Amino acid sequence: MLFRSIPEQVVNACNTIANEVCDASGFVQIRRLLDRFDARLLIRPMLVEGMLASVPPEETGSTIGLRWVVLIDEETYRIRTEDVDLETPSQQLPVRLRNTIAHELVHSLAFRPTEFGISLNVTSTRQKPADLVHIVEQETERLSPLLLWPERALTTLLQGKQEPLSLAQLVEARRALGISRYLLINRLCLIRHSDDNGHLTSRGLRNLAIGLAEWQADGMAVTRSWPLFANFDRNLLPALLRKISRQDRLPAKSIFPDVTFAMCGGSNEKVTLSAPAGTEGNPEVERLDVEVSAESTARVAGSEFLFVVRVPLSSH
Q: What is the pTM assigned to this prediction?
């Protein structure tokens, strides 16, 4: 199971925080997120993009113990604190900066769990509470997507959908939420850890896969093995997705047989394929007619883009 060592309480705490600070559209303003964590933001020259630090209460006059500071490198992110204060859904901070700050804030949960209603129960006499804090500190870095894509916004996106989300809908969601492609996919992967709202059985996420690809100098693409979200009925996964997940940087032309497809150097950003599908033990029990779409981006070597594999309603 994904995140075996993370208490579900940590996941629930992140979901609760995001739902509390997001606006009506589901957008999470970074200033509100910092305030919820009772953290300051300092922008200064550093050797790393971002860092979390604690400040003793005697230096801040705090009556609640340690205060937390998120340090951001001013060379990497040429912003002012005023830019953070003025952020809106239509005037967003850079996606990478938003993710860096969320990453550092969720990292702090390892050191202040009780502030957010998290109790770390010792399950073994050989396991010390400090060991559990260490585990949470290591693993929570993967949970920053929960802070930037609230459960409320995910529910809204899926509401009323009668077929799998399209690439266009996912691209628009990413833009509106101010999140990266990596974060978008990882947020959906996190649903498997806690799905109280039944998102995985909604029509919007059934028979759907979302992955990352990268343009090469020859105008063709390679696929990335991670992150990859896939959710198909009866666990009948298209064989091409298993191939993608098992080897990083596979040439798209070795996966998709249609040479007119953009990822294979062609001009079509969407193609329909008949693909073998099955389980791990029996990978080709039937064939699925799948629609494969590639995000429309400039074919600049090294740049990444989303691709989607889905079974449209018309194919059911």
A: 0.89
